[in-house]
Amino acid sequence: MKLRTTFLWAMIISLSAAALIGIAVLLLPDLGPTEEILASTALFSAFSLVALCCAIVLEKRRLVPLMWIGIAVGFVAMLVWLFMVWFHGMLNWEWEERVLRTGGVFTIIACWCAYCGLMSLPRLTGRLTRSVQCGTIGIWALLAVIWILGLCWEQEFELLVDYLLGEDLALRLMGVLLILGACGTVVTPILWRVQALRAAAARESVPVELRVQIVCPRCHTQQELMTGRSKCAKCGLRIRITVEEPRCTCGYLLYRLESDTCPECGRKLAQQDT
Description:
Elements: H1 2-27, H2 34-59, H3 64-87, H4 93-120, H5 127-152, H6 154-164, H7 167-202, E1 211-215, E2 222-226, E3 228-231, E4 238-241
Antiparallel strand pairs: 1-2, 3-4
């Protein structure tokens, strides 16, 4: 929780600083190296967002080594881009290109680590749903590898792709992968939610409709009424009876749960939830 809060505040502070600097640029045009400062705060905000995503996954104890790699690589990527923002004029074109490629590679790796961690959070149980989840992560991993190869060995990679597939077919396949990856990213949390709702409906410990023994608060007549809307058999007082079992926000039934963490989504439960 502390790690996530740290990165969250870092992102908020950097975004606020960028906003204040932007306002100052509009009001005071001769303020100084405002472009570099704006770019630096934007980079810090982007790194904080990636680190925040990794921290969320770390709290769930998922993919711990990969998440630390994502945070470390993202930090290195931020330093590389900050160097280019402030000292790009000190390098010749060859070294500048190398630094840009390095920053691009580290950025892709950091973003994929954060994405992989977030996509692994939904605990899908069905074979088909797990295939969609793992397939989506795999598609973005393949795209990340393609982009990294294109950055590191641009000419050689283009010649290899043209030789094997041709430029037109390669672009079409890239478009297909992007569409499939985007669809999988949207569909995976929807499948997780549908799974949670189905599991919740199947885990009812009491029936939705049942008869309850009550005492009328007006005439004090003891009687048996059905859940829902009804009325007292003697005085006609309208009575509505609802039965609600303790559930997590994801829909998981918490009846007789001994743990203080939801086994479905990993949410920390308060005492009143159970």
